[in-house]
């Protein structure tokens, strides 16, 4: 029988302490609902006492319904010399209307004396009073022992007495926090073991990643008896982040006999990770374990040829178990295996042009030397291969374009593009306004093409990235433009490189349209064949 | 007495297996020299048998001199049924001319049978023959036991017999590799312990980060007797990367009694990490432990006020120990402490305008709601605060600009900007060509300003980033532009947000120039006062 571990998500609270992480109240609600579907037990929504946005979230959450998760409000113990019933922070915690609350208290004498500036005894009193007050208001109380490990190393007896104060007052779980993230796994293991001998209440762990050990410390705590783990999606959080639940959950559940979320939901992990980074408007970390775009990406030729023979050879789990998938990267380290695998995936029959394969590899190496990168621009690679194997006809050719962007003395801005292209010997001349040069160009190109290819209206650009190459060359630098495009859930990336950013953008833009049109033409062709 | 641990860097070999990581031969040499200065013991430069770039690196390295580090060439054991003296791969390894070589052999029967397709016995023979051949050529031999942990779990006896084959043939160190990155720290600890009982040769560890445990597994191996650790700068490497040396080294050396690199060099870690990401042309990971820009960044108001009282309260080490520094972030979670700390750092005397502080905080929250982000644009925040406290005079005002970008039928591209600005009631009208709209605008603005402010020639733009906000709004999306600028080693960031990318760029551009001019004016003023 697997041991049950409570998962407590604090993406919406400690996660937002991370640099560049911010959510609106509505964002928070969307994330909470997604975490609920994933099967997370507790969702810490914010600190009602600290800002109006968090108050708004608890209002929204109160009107929403959750199948499994308990929403948690976070706050501190009451102020010294204040009876709990007169403490504004505790009142706001009760008013948040959540079934559970998390309150943090001080474990480390240094903090009691330097930060709170109260006596050791007064600190025990406010812990006891606060927990008791919240229990009297029928809350499930999660007690976060802030700086527990640092406090324990300095003075184990006092630190244990703070835990006992919370336990005596009825706290439901005592969470040992490595607030500064400086503790090592063997220390976590020793200390959790010792604490377990002294305390009867269930124990939890809250770890940070300052030593790159946020996941390892949580694992170590669970292996030594903690039954509650706090963490965040993608490890977002203060400084270097918190325990990353996207790694911790599969480590516990796929590799050991612990049960965290319903097994059937594990394959939602990749989607939830990307969803949260999208809502946070942050680029997903491609190297992220389990859920990252590169987590099952093979670049070395030897690895690719082995994985093609037997997936266990270079993959520690099946990527599908966490909703991820295998990728084979094309780069100048690529052997023939990579090119073959890729071509197969893309439906290019390389056998037909077998003698062209070395030429494609050669061209790829040349372009990568110039700054092209096809790893995130698979559509541009496919076009390249098609053009080189002769399986390609242009959908349109450029006769010329001009973009004018201006700002006048009143501060108004305007950007306009005019464009001439030729389709089947017919010249189209169009103009459009846009939010910027590439947007105006995109709109003008659509206007010109739609008469010939009405399916253009169904695809759109979703992201546009510019990277300055060879920064040390200053103004002589080349730039690389990556464009992501999509038609509903289907998406593709294209790349352009040039001295001139508009020129690089034009390459990526036309690759995107051409790739899409070729794909549509193939689908129509296939349908007609059936 | 501290225990010495050999540090083996494979950034230049396994690091380049990571997605988006690529180095030229010259890049590799620059990195190797930097690692040598840091005090790394072994630098694995590449696989001479796999591509011409690596061959070129070993040629360059042969002509360079290294104070401390040994350069290592990497390759595989010889082919089955081939005498080692006739094996091309071993010949290339010898020819690379390095004092040490690393060769990998198969430990896992699955691989021997499925990937190599040879017998268990033949595999032992090629390991023995290859190591012996390299020892006969006076090489220090590092034997990498590929898939050691997976192999050991499947068949401990066979796996140990591969190690013994390498040991008997004279290998100098036997490196236990967790090639697929699927092993957990408690398994590493058990297995390393067992192996230590059977093998006399020194043991090493090579771990991957597929479970977010690359650093934890290396720590666990060292604590159980390994004396050699392989890893990469920033954890770059295949899939989710390798053991991150930027975290491992301080974990071993600042927190435990191990010695890796000269203590005086530890404060180079942050600079080396950023140097390698610059050469790889990748954005540094701000959340990276120890060396990341956010590693000692405080956002929550409570943390800031505590850190200002006593740094130990929220910092696990002093940031200076690894060459990093503390930052205080300004965001809508900011309390008054953050604004005060920031203002103090920037030399804004908030006391003088004490009643304006709540207004600044209010404005900040409004702008962040619109999509501005000041965390990486401290110069724009300073201008904002100065403008609100009345301590500001404009250096120039815009009368208008127009940008024309065009591409003609022959494929040639051209971008030109014309610009009118007013300085001290004098209107300047200039034109310039550039690589793109913002570059042309930058050049025209410089032309117009230089007559009044010749110091402009000393600063330049170093990076330009565009982020589409609210992607779900499609073409109605706002964009945020971040510009980094520098004058020699001094750098600053500015931000602009608008519906129109040119407009957002103009905001960030003028903020950069204005910030620089204000700073120069203040320096002159201070010099005059002395």
UniProtKB/TrEMBL annotation, chains A, B:
Reaction(s) this enzyme catalyzes, per UniProt: pyruvate + acetyl-CoA + H2O = (3R)-citramalate + CoA + H(+)
SMART domains reported in the protein's UniProt record: LeuA_dimer (SM00917)
Keyword terms of this UniProt record: Acyltransferase, Amino-acid biosynthesis, Branched-chain amino acid biosynthesis, Isoleucine biosynthesis, Transferase
Domain Pyruvate carboxyltransferase: 5-267
Top-level taxon of the source organism: Bacteria
Pathway noted in the entry: Amino-acid biosynthesis; L-isoleucine biosynthesis; 2-oxobutanoate from pyruvate: step 1/3
The EC number(s) this enzyme carries: 2.3.3.21
SUPFAM superfamilies xref list: 2-isopropylmalate synthase LeuA, allosteric (dimerisation) domain, Aldolase
Top-level enzyme category: transferase
One MF annotation (Gene Ontology) recorded for this entry: (R)-citramalate synthase activity
Family from the record: Belongs to the alpha-IPM synthase/homocitrate synthase family.
Name of this chain's protein: Citramalate synthase
Native source organism of the sequence: Fodinibius salicampi
Species classification: Bacteria, Pseudomonadati, Balneolota, Balneolia, Balneolales
Designated gene of the protein: cimA
